[in-house]
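Hi team,

Filling in the usual template for the complex we talked about on Friday. All components are listed, including any nucleic acid strands or ligand strings, so the model treats them as one assembly.

SUBMITTER: L.P.
PURPOSE: interface mapping
COMPONENTS: three
RESIDUES: 1129
SEQUENCES:
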Amino acid sequence: MTQLASLSSTLLYVAFVLYLIATAFFAGSIKSKKHTNQTGKNRWATIAITITIIGFVSQLGYFITRWIASGHAPLSNLFEFITFFGMMLIAAFIIIYFIYRAHVLGVFALPIALLIIAYSSMFPRDISPLIPALQSDWLAIHVSTVAAGEAILAISFVAGLIYLLKDVDLAKKGKQTFWLEAVLFSLVIVVGFIAATTTSQITGYESEFSHINTEGNEDVAEYHLPALVIPHQGELVTENRFASPVEMPAIVNASRLNTVIWSIMVGTVLYLLTRLIFRRSISALLQPLVRKVNLNLMDEVGYRSVLIGFPVFTLGGLVFAMIWAQIAWTRFWGWDPKEVWALITWLFYAAFLHLRLSRGWEGNRSAWLAVIGFAIIMFNLVAVNLIIAGLHSYA
Amino acid sequence: MSEITCKCGHVNPEGTELCLSCGRALTTDAEEKKTSDVMRYEGMARRSQTYNGSIIDKVWNFFSSVKVGVWLIVITLSASALGTIFPQVLFISPLEAPEVYYEERYGVAGEIYYILGFHDLYNSWWYLLLIAAIGTSIIIASLDRVIPLYKALKHQRVNRHASFMKRQRIYTEYPLYSSDTFSKIKDGLRNKRYRIREEDGNLLAEKGRFSRWGPYVNHTGLIIFLIGAMLRFVPGMYVDEVMWIREGETMAIPGTDQEYFLKSEGFTVETYDADEDKEVFGATIDRVGAIAKNFQTDAILLKREDGVAGDSSNLVEVEEHPIRVNQPFKFDNFALYQVDFRQGEFRSMSFNLVQKESGDSFGPFEIDLTQPEDEYQLDDDHRVELMGYYPDFSGFENGEPQSPSPVPNNPAFLFKLFSPEHPDGEVAFIAIQQNLEPLGENDYQLSFNGVETRDVSGLTVRKDLTLWILALGGAIFMIGVVQGAYWNHRRVWVKRTEEGGMLVSGHTNKNWFGLRKDLEAAFTNTGLEQPKDQHEQNLNKVSAGGAKEEENRDTTS
Amino acid sequence: MNNRKKKRLIVRITILSVLIAAVVYTLYSTLTEDERMIVKAGDQAPDFVLTDLNGETHRLSDYKGQGVFLNFWGTWCKPCEKEMPYMENQYQAFKDQGVQILAVNVGESEFQVKNFAKKYNLSFPIVRDSQKDVMYSYAIGPLPTTLLINPEGEVVEVVKSGMDEETVASYMEMIKP
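RESULT (copied from the run log):
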């Protein structure tokens, strides 16, 4: 079983590397001069999608072997869920790719999936046994459907981003130019988080603070990055470690805030470095990749993925969620923050569809809505688990 | 204003945009509107817009607007988000007073949150009104649209006016009409599973019309769901009670109208074991410590065959059943859930009577905390009289031992110790780690001999007769949303012109890519180029960075 | 045309009224949720039978024709403790006028209840509801709660707080046959 578990980790690693290679080939495919509209057959693209599929199969292998090793669906903590979400994103991309054959999607969808998988591995990766609340077949059914739904919806974000990169006139300074850059900047911050956390994991940096928690009791906070902010009445107990004098109130999880500050700092440094080296904004840097994109097609891909993803999300995030909640938590709906944010996501995409169907919000506006929708999904995925305490806090 | 007579002679009801017969635009307004906006409801009169007299009509029209509907959705989702900033009052411990809790923990922001009532946002009257408004909007907006849409789609004419054809997004004029090409297109479309109607060499091919009903089906599902949610408030439909039951106890089950009783045979907590359970869990168990594996109450359900409350002489055992997390015990529309527990509640305590000097010990005797006795006879000469029992001893008040609750959290006893030396007894007060001799030094004392504890299960009793309605609503919603999202309504018109040419146009409510593919297939054998997507052409004309087609458009519906 | 307009107006008014009625009902139910489940004034008092400290059984319906002062209490509850002597005093005054007190102890041991009765010299019947059976049938929340039941067996008032002696007297007056 332990062997199976390590095989599982290897397969995930292999998948990650393959996605990375496939991204390069997709980038090559749109540079190819032969195909101006970036669809249809193209040797680079064929290689790229083949590698993507092999990567997907490898990740599927990770999923299955881990399932066998642990005896339950590997969807029980943040690492497992976010990894699966990344895998579903790849699956959704493969499906949409075979419908529309738009290579440019790969150039953006794969890096985002890579980012998500890398992000997931920042959380504890041990195989953990299931607590009683999770011991149900609905774990696999509910969580996988939610992840699939959100992943398909995320494709609309990818399409929307590509649409905007081409559509927004970067020469003009305006709201759209600003916000587009802001979206890309936030992706760089995720890179910052991964970089900071990986560095700390490699160097093994660790420090502990004794502090007073919200209940007024003494507690110990663990830091894996030099403490720029310290907990309420925090005192460093590890020797030779950095501690700033900036103290947080008890309700703030200072250790987590510290990680966020480090991520933003590293992200900002990375961002400024790229700007310094290339002397252009990231939007402008990416724009050549989308120069030949068919806007109409991107709009359609974006809309189509919302249409496909919305029912799947409803099924997993609301219907299955309610069924399981009735069984496990005695009531189908209890206003738990995660539930509320699933409802918000659902209402948002419902508004998206009404605006599009009945009020003609297409193209640029629809693309922006897709970006906002993805932000809501990410908020629910990350922030609600880490910041807002609730029944779903299985870290 | 009344009926509109079209140039073709057809009489249309007031408010119609496109003639029901030939498809001509009837008003200049309709002519200028975007095709997709006019085609959405087939150019039919939407009732809401045609009558605007009384206040009832105004209210009706307000809720009929999709714009209003979208606003309601946006407001509701923003309000819902507000409710997650700080925990809702139902998640904070019932021991905390909310008016202090929010301010103490979250400062001024928390205080404002509480004052505005956001601590119980989802039960507030205004949040309920928002949901009600969305429900109203769904009903009225759907009614207003589905009826005219149904009529329009039912009475479609095959032969449409050239102006109607021309304004479709997919449109091409071919100079030559031949019946050979015509039948090839027809067969091509039929192979793509279009339903074909033909009239004087004109053609209407249609598929997936039922997807147009998707929105109305899913709205029906939502309304059924909301009705189900509302029915919860009808007496008898819904029970939500909590019961605490100790091991070995038999208790009435609240909410069952004194019909059912539960006996707890025992409560178990299991944790994962690094040696017994899977080896791969070892790392996690090392990292976080014990991980719970099972919470279980072994219960026996009893039913009172007859008799009134308080009469438990006719309890009949119905079923023995474990209650576990994720595996509620269901019976007769009720379900019992394992939700909580308290471990190690004192059940009995035993003591020895000890002569201090000699160390001679008498007893032991055991006090069952559920039914303490007045007196415990130890042997012929020694006995202990129980004068007072304080299950949750908290201190003295005016010399009187206090117990602010009936739960044996900290049992204390007042005893009188009788011995040959003291036939009138010595008074001793015993609590955990506390031994008082209030009336002076005694010769005897009680020494603690042992304790027995038991666990208490916290169970939720639930009955919800609305579940099947909610399930029905949910199922209908899912059917409707899939119907609307995974199918498309595609139509292709072929018109033979008087000049001997051929007009081909196509329309779909979404997924133009799919319609183009169908047309590509239908036109492959004709030798003609497939009809063009005018939108696509326009868009390709606008080069990179300049497609600002959205800027000047803000349509109303 | 005019006829159609009229018909439409009627349809719209009907639909809107149904919706408004539904919303009002839901709002009312939500805002008064806590109140609805409990046995309240005007209801027929649910019958029960419990045993007192002397082993005698008391059935509520046997007291038809008398007013019943039904008090739910616990030895640990301060306001209960405070009102017990008042009840005892007034019991002496009213027992010959057809008012009966039934004090229902919720879930405590016979020892505690007996001790308590001895301490305050209580002479009215004290019954024990050890399975919380009767408590649930009256959906009693916090203790003490007192129900005033008239000779017809109908609940006249539900008192959800402690009482002083005057109030106890006035309540007994209220249910006197």
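MY TAKE: Chain A has a mean pLDDT of 88. Chains A and C do not touch (no CB pair under 8 Å).

Thanks, L.
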